[in-house]
Amino acid sequence: MKRTADLPRCPPPVVGFADCYTGGFVDGFHTHDRGQLSVFLGGTVTVSTRNSSFVLCPGQGLWLPANTLHQAVCRTDLAFQVVYVDPTFSGADLPCKMFDVSSLLQGLVDEIVAMRYEFAMDDRMSTIARLLIDELRRAPQIAERLLLPTDQRLRRVCEAITAAPGDSHAIDYWAREAGMARRTFTRLFQAEMGMGFATWRRKVRVLEASSRIAAGQSIAEIAFDLGYGNAGSFSTMFHRASGVAPRTLRAVASHKTRP
């Protein structure tokens, strides 16, 4: 396991390495003084910031600006690459973004990682770094992130549900847990999250299911764990919510996993 502390005292403005974590590992909340680009090659991981949670699969990437508080929870064994970018490097002031990794961006990351830590930022490496930042800027953002509320009462509810996505308690139960009347709970939830409670909980289940599908868990087992009576009803919900069938997602994730 490598960390920014393992970098040389004066690393180049753009530096990267490959690493792997075991399933179940939790890299608790922390920050880096550089922007962090993570490219995931195998396995699934949940990365959480103060206000959002991202579920990432092979072939996807995540950019975190410098000094972003975040943690990573490995759902499975995880293989990935990391590139750290000095915040003073031109164009590195990008907002947080989850995206699909293009073949060009993957090639640029591979080149930076292959150089390890000891290289000069000559014309060639400066061009590679600038092109990397430009590709990050151009990459369409994936909307598959889970927003978390700022109201602490709602946040406790949301954290309880993300910890147990298959929970089937009705909205009245969760309103009581938050210490609110149902009407107050639903109104505040809509105002904070921009969607109703049922829609948000469905999104939790879709993201949870996506990570499990990519990890190779059976559709029937996922359906049962998430509170569905059979795989058919779960698959219908998943297809309607995500626009892709579970088996199709599994095939895509398997294809994107690098050996």
TrEMBL record:
Coiled coil: none
Pfam family, one: HTH_18
GO molecular function, one term: sequence-specific DNA binding
Alphabetical UniProt keywords: DNA-binding, Repressor, Transcription, Transcription regulation
Matching PROSITE patterns: HTH_ARAC_FAMILY_2
Top-level taxon in the UniProt lineage: Bacteria
Residue stretches making up the HTH araC/xylS-type domain: 155-252
UniProt name for this protein: Helix-turn-helix transcriptional regulator
Organism: Ameyamaea chiangmaiensis
